[in-house]
Amino acid sequence: MDVGAAVRPARALPAYIESDGAKLTLVALAYFVGAELAFVVGTLSDKIFAPFWPPNIVLLYALVFAPARRWWLYILATFPAHVVAELGIGMGAQQLLVAFATNALLAVIIALAMIRVLGGPPRFDNVRGATTYILVAALISPALVALGGAFVPITGGGAITKYWTFWAQWFLSNALGALTLGSAAFIWLRQKSSPPMTSWRRIEALLLAAALVVVCTVAFELGTGSIAIGFLPALLYSPLPLILWAAVRFGARGASGAVVMVTVVLTWRALNGPSLFVAGDSETNVFALQIFLVALAIPVLLLGTAIEEVRRAERTTREREEQMAFAAASANIGLWQYEHAGNRFWATEHCRAMLSVPPGAPLTWEAIRNCVQPEDRDALIDLVRAARIESPAEHEFRVRDPDGQIRWIAARARTEFDAGATPTRVSGLLTDITRRKQAEHEIDLQRKELAHLMRVGMVGELSGAIAHELNQPLTAILANAQAARRMLAQTSPDAHEIEDALDDIVRDDNRAGEVIRRLRGLLKKDAGRSEPVDLNGLVEAALRLLHGELVGRTVKVELNLQPGLPHAFGDPIQLQQVLLNLVMNSIEAMGATPPAERVVRITTRSTDQDRIEVVVADRGCGLSPDAKARLFMPFFTTKEHGLGLGLSICSTIVRSCGGELGLTGNARGGATATMTLPLPERMRHAHEKRIAAT
Amino acid sequence: MSASNFRVFIVDDDEHVLRALSRLVRAAGYASETFASPRQFLERHDSGDRGCLILDFIMPEIDGLQLQALLSARGISLPIIFLTGRGKVETGVSAMKAGAVDFLTKPVDDTLLLAAIRRAEMQEAAARHHRDEMASIAARLATLTPRETQVLTHVIAGRLNKQIAGDLGTVEKTIKVHRGRMMEKLGVHSVADLVRLTERAGIRPYGLHEPGYQTLPDAIGPRANSTIAAP
Question: What Å distances lie between residue B203 and A463, B130, B136, B160, B194, CA to CA?
């Protein structure tokens, strides 16, 4: 079955005909009425055969909607109706039986074909269903069955020479029945009207029906007596605009309704006096009428169905778009599209809201550009440019909403190209990532806060060593100053010596200032910049800060710094913190090492993989297997008074610079910490050039 | 101001502090010599050098206390003034127990430092004086003949010439000659002076067996000399 059937279920039959007995009775009754109707028409026109034969449609309708194993019941039920009706017009038993056999056969063949090909009753909301129905029910099956049906008049005394005439009569009356009554039954009884009928459309439909009846009546009333014979085709075509109107405005319902109306009016005219079809004998007139109606019904039905299908497709598309826009809005996503042809923008309401474009305001590049924060406007241009190369391209930018709040928007875009590789359309989506950005920002702040707290803690731990560092220049300053005063008090002061003393005071004061500055830098809160960092310088500065601690604990330092080490990229204060932490860990790890063996070896080097390494190795207690597994976990510590955050924070800092921090045990005891940082892009290129040059 | 060859030795691993202290000491009229590490001091110092030592307490490799112990093991008796950035009571106490002149914290005021140096200088002078005196007594004692030495122990034991002659189996006149020559060699004019001198040299009077005194025959000769010279 097609999608439409699933979305729009067939109309259910009323409950009172749901029971089998009622259904069978109803079908038998309808069969009888249909037959009588045909006879009335036939009698009125003094012809045996009516232009169409309704009982077959009744049986077909019954079979198509019934399960195949019950078909025999329906056939059996209609048989008495058939016998009664046919006996009523005095038909012979043999004729009667052949007629019933062919009628039943026709209904069974069509019902089987429908179920085989379409999987169920025909539907006139898609062209395939309508075409199949027309081919099977109105052309092939009647043509085949008429081969047998033609014998009915012959057994009734007809001349065998008129076999093909009888065949044509049978064929056409069944074909016309299937096209007019049959399609109308399937459409009107089983399909909902689409679009739904409003009162205005009802009025339109009524007016249309009335107009059709009037036009048909008037047109066909004008017989050959009142009009030149050459105008007949024009008269025949006069209902066509109204029929097309019905098909276009009301789809399959309109088309089948109009066809039935024209059929009824034409048949009525043919029965009651002068008709347009007055070629010869009444038999030929009926043929002409039938052929005309068949030829009219097929395209009109197909047109109505096609329009129904197009409308349904449109509706489905619109519903999908609405669903997508709704889903997108629910997921906080805005959809947009830009057509190069015509320079047109389309965007969902949510998208407009995200960009803070007022609803109804024209959407242009200029308008969008103006919503984006000036510093991010290049990102927008980059996005569109990148979308031509990579698909999809992604960028983030900020917009200012009407309340003046800054919102972060992530945009994805892709470009569609035509066959000539010319971009035709850029489409994409916007996501409001303000919350994520805020969360990231907060996490970053917390991380910095924690790192700062750890630095403060570290300074506390180092306070003794730092006091010593400050004490030295202060000692020198005091001694120099007092020496100078004493020299001045002498009878012949040595001006040169006093000048030297004063110079030394200045230099020592600077030295003390340097210690304070380093300390202040370490305690500073607004860390988190990113700038080129000289790691060698950083190592030396760290060792100056730790000098007192190293001397106090009789730890020797071996330095192995690569000259001309490329700069790394990161926050110097935070990287300094990492180095201090690593060296302090080493110092503490060597508490139990004999003083002569207490050595920290610090190495800096650039590796082949465009990275810079700082290695801090000690001869301390090394790593236990337990420690190895949990080194970088927060709150894991091997120290008695440790907080267990040092390495965890160091690792976070190094990772935020795009690097890695590793710690391994040494074969000869002790541990080696390796901090690996990537070379910044620029540095890497210079580095490559240097390698290429050598 | 001070004795010609008294010098102030300064050991500190911080060259700026070293230079500044040296300048201060020189401004106060002392000669000074600086060493960047205890090792350097040990290499360059001669045991005959006179002076005092200003020693930084916390230094790489060998710290102040260790240097003090090393010097003492080598028999070098320089008065030591400790300077420290972090004045811990325990370390100060152990330094003072080991004979330090003073234990000062950095930054140090010149009056305190110079007072300490003066004290060190006096201590050094006293020690030197004592050492010189001992050396001269020992030298004089070394000139005595065994007989004269015997007579000396008897004299400081308060015995009369006659008794001494009886003890030594000789006549009083001979004893009188020995006694006169001994008094002359030692440069004393009265028995009281002689007793003071022998007490300082730790010579035990005849028949006295108190600890701290030496029996005379042992006190004579090169061994006695070195024993006396030791502080």
Answer: 58, 16, 15, 19, 11
Provide φ and ψ at B56, rounded to 5°: -70, 140
B26 touches chain A (CB under 8 A): yes
Residues A397, A503 within the same domain: no
Q: Is A515 on the interface with B (CB under 8 A)?
A: no
Residue B109 belongs to what domain range?
A: 7-129
* Residue of B11, B16, B110 to mutate, interface with A, max A Cβ within 10 Å: B16
In tens, the pLDDT along A582-616 reads 888 888 888 888 888 889 999 999 887 788 999 99
Q: Do B123 and B59 lie in a common domain?
A: yes
The predicted-structure confidence for A616-647, as pLDDT tens digits, reads as follows 998 887 777 777 666 666 666 666 666 566 78
* Same domain for B124 and B17: yes
Q: Which amino acid is at A145?
A: V
Tell me how close the Cα of A617 comes to any Cα of chain B, in angstroms. 20
What is the value of pTM for the model shown?
A: 0.52
Per-residue tokens: A110: 């069509």
To the nearest 10 degrees (0 to 180), the angle between helices A20-44 and A240-271 is: 70
> Are A476 and B20 within 8 A, CB to CB?
yes
Q: In the listed set A526, A548, A577, which residue is the last one of a domain according to the structure?
A: A526
Question: Is A667 within a domain?
Answer: yes
Within an 8 Å CB–CB cutoff, is residue B16 touching chain A? yes
Residue of A484, A511, A552 with shortest CB distance to B58:
A552
The domain of A245 spans: 3-314
In a domain, A642, yes or no: yes
A480/B86 touch (CB, cutoff 8 Å), yes or no: no
Tell the residue number behind the tokens 């010869």, with chain if given.
A280
Give the domain-ending residue among A526, A559, A592.
Answer: A526
- Provide the ipTM: 0.74
